[in-house]
Amino acid sequence: MIEAAPAGRQLILPLPPIHRYELNALLTDASNAEALAWLRRPEGWPQGRLALFGPAATGKTHMLQGLAAARGWPVLEGPSLRGLPEVPPGPGLGLDDADCAAEERALLHLLNLCAERGQLVLLAGREAPARWPVALPDLRSRLRAMPAVGIRPPGDALLAALLRRDFARRQLRVEEGVQAWLLARLPREAAAVAEAAARLDRAALAAGGRVTRALARSVLAELPGFGSDDESMALAEPDCPGPPSLL
């Protein structure tokens, strides 16, 4: 039996998360257009390989996971790559945080095995593979030959479109002035925009009112980076614990 909510307040039922890794859900602007164009034609990747690179919170993981989900590819994590890693067979494979691979020999084994199988490989990291500090000559030559496409932080227009879309998905009407106020204070990355929309949606339902600046200020005060200046708002992506091991 569901208890009635107190007068003046609505009962909030748990909802499934809206966010999913879907390549088609990504909006395009100058920051990611080249990368998305490459991801739409993986059969044309030179030697069947491609690397995505860029700063934290630019959508690398979303793109990699989105393509993998659409194509039925498994996804591995670089920090877990050790020894002779078990590489699932299939038409392709994604490796996130590839520049943080635990062992260089494990990454070399993965690339060689996928090449033998004709298995496509998509890597994601913070720098282009040619710039990774790699000691193994064979791995270094493979990484330097790999095509790489950069992703930049989202521009103002893309962030505004993401915020409008997140509100629209939740059927939450927010005045343009409030949206502009939010965009000036939110961290400049899609995940923070989506999290802010989710928090504001829950708060507006609980209060039975609309989203105002006062409500947003109280609800988002604990959101990391909210209200900070541009320099401190950038989300830090932790460094790898050191150069990959050769063992």
UniProtKB/TrEMBL annotation:
Instruction: List, alphabetically, the SUPFAM superfamilies matched.
Output: P-loop containing nucleoside triphosphate hydrolases
InterPro entries, per the entry: Hda_lid, P-loop_NTPase
> What range(s) does the Hda lid domain occupy?
160-220
Top-rank taxon of the source lineage equals Bacteria
Record protein name field: Chromosomal replication initiator DnaA
Lineage runs: Bacteria, Pseudomonadati, Pseudomonadota, Alphaproteobacteria, Acetobacterales
